[in-house]
Amino acid sequence: MQNLWDNSRANMCRDDLDLRVYSSNLLGKSDELVLHGGGNTSVKIDVEGRAILYVKGSGWDLVSIEREGFSPVKMSALIRMAKLTHLSDSEMVAGQKIAMIDEIAPNPSVEAILHALIPFKVVDHTHADAIVTISNSINGKEHIEKIFPNFLIIPYVMPGFILAQTIYTLTESVDFDWESCEGIILHNHGIFTFDNDAKKSYDKMIEAVVRAENFLEMEARVIFDKSEPTMDLDIDVLGELISEAKGYEVVMRVNQTPLALTYVSQKNLSTFATRGVLTPEHIIRTKREPLVLENSNIKRALEKYKNSYLKYFDHFEKDEIMLNPAPNYAVVKDFGIVLFGKSSKEVDVLNDVIEHTMMAVLRADKLGGFVSIGLEDSFDMEYWELEQAKLNKG
After folding, report:
1. Overall pTM surpassing 0.90 (yes/no)
2. Do 191 and 325 fall within a single domain?
3. What is the pLDDT of residues 257-278, one digit of tens each?
4. Rounded CA gap, 331 and 270, in Å?
């Protein structure tokens, strides 16, 4: 992970928000930190005597975010919300919207309350591959604690208000010292760094990720041992069946990179490839599991997949409306990965997410095994109204 900070460029920034835009763009330039809308950043600024949190607005990518992409929210309102014992998603969104000082700004990030709680001017949050790969391994808890002894480490909880409330509870004690805390790591989710200086917060993020990358280089190096597919697939039949199941003609893309071919050559593929997502927000693009094809009977495999999804939905649903039960991508034994979408752009985004997931799974298996969030947590994320809104806006 390369540190991209350029002092001459940073010195051209005319104010704190300009600098926040610059450092956010730097974070967004690395796919190993954030992908397609992932992560969020903020800066606290005094505006006419009021403390205002300028936090990444929903629907913006860090790599391209501009000044207008940050939502200005009153700190006092966010801190009040953090102290509540219960806050529904709709109440949180409404409360944050009311607390904005610019009514035409985008809706604040779902992590706005947590950004407000962290008592530093600048806060950076990414879903760094290296961090999540380690935490998504069987012994991830032990590895993370050893690599990051001065970080606050949080077991997986639902993002948004629940996560903010959890961290508020853990840090409100007088015994907790924010000054000695180097950052926060959220298992199966990502990492936060912070400082009163934008460069220092950015440097802390890069340094932490490099630390994790060095660990993986020593303990979980992956060798791509496949360069050519050894099996055939009737791609036309697959496309016809998926289009019928989706209710529209899908755009398909085949990934047969050495990474993909190594991934699909693994033993017990139906178990290997269905262990869940790399980070929770990926599930709105990928579903929890792909269609796995280990033989030529595509129709039977697809029916089995849809039936399994129906059982998953029926088991966890409360009053949600079921999404289309057809898969968003297929893992085909010794052939490659096949991705399905409504457009080329959607397929490209999905391919990026799957490529990062494949690498993480292969590496986590070198550490003893890949472990994602559980079925119930997966369902809660897949049907979380705030994530669904993000997908619809995208």
Report:
1. yes
2. no
3. 999 999 999 999 999 999 999 9
4. 9
Pairing of strands 291-293, 329-332: parallel
Residue 13 in tokens: 């920034």
Count of the separate structural domains present in the chain? 2
Do 69 and 213 have their domain in common? Answer: yes
* Residue 370: domain span: 235-393
Residue 26's CB is within 10 A of a number of other CB atoms, namely 24
Q: Is residue 2 one of the residues assigned to a domain?
A: no
Looking at residue 200, its pLDDT comes to: 98
49 and 131 belong to one structural domain: yes
* Residue with tokens 């796919």, as numbered in its chain: 31
Asked whether the predicted pLDDT for residue 226 surpasses 80, the reply is no
Q: Which two tokens stand for residue 130?
A: 């290296």
Q: Are residues 162 and 273 in the same domain?
A: no
What is the helix, strand, coil percentage profile of the chain, to 5? 45, 15, 40
105 conformational bin, left if phi > 0, alpha if psi -120 to 50, beta if neither: beta
278: CATH: 3.40.225.10
Nearest CA to 194 out of 62, 81, 44, 68 is that of 44
Is residue 299 domain-resident?
yes
Comparing 80-89, 97-106, 153-162, 378-387, which segment has the lowest mean pLDDT? 378-387
Mean pLDDT of 327-341: 97
Give DSSP secondary structure letters for 220-244.
Answer: --------S--S---HHHHHHHHHH
Judge if 241 and 376 occupy the same domain.
Answer: yes
Do 256 and 367 belong to one domain? Answer: yes
CB 122 within 8 Å of CB 198: yes
Tell me how far apart the alpha carbons of residues 15 and 18 are, in angstroms, rounded to a whole number: 5
The pLDDT of residue 388 is: 63
Question: 126-139 pLDDT, tens per residue?
Answer: 999 999 999 999 99
User: What is the chain's mean pLDDT, rounded?
Assistant: 94
Find out whether 357 and 278 touch, Cβ atoms under 8 Å. Answer: yes
- Alpha helices, H only, 2-128: 7-10, 16-28, 75-82, 89-98, 112-117
List alpha helices for the chain, DSSP H: 7-10, 16-28, 75-82, 89-98, 112-117, 129-135, 140-147, 161-171, 198-219, 235-246, 258-264, 269-272, 283-286, 298-316, 344-366, 375-382, 385-393
Cα–Cα distance measured from residue 364 to residue 29, given in angstroms and rounded to the nearest whole number: 24
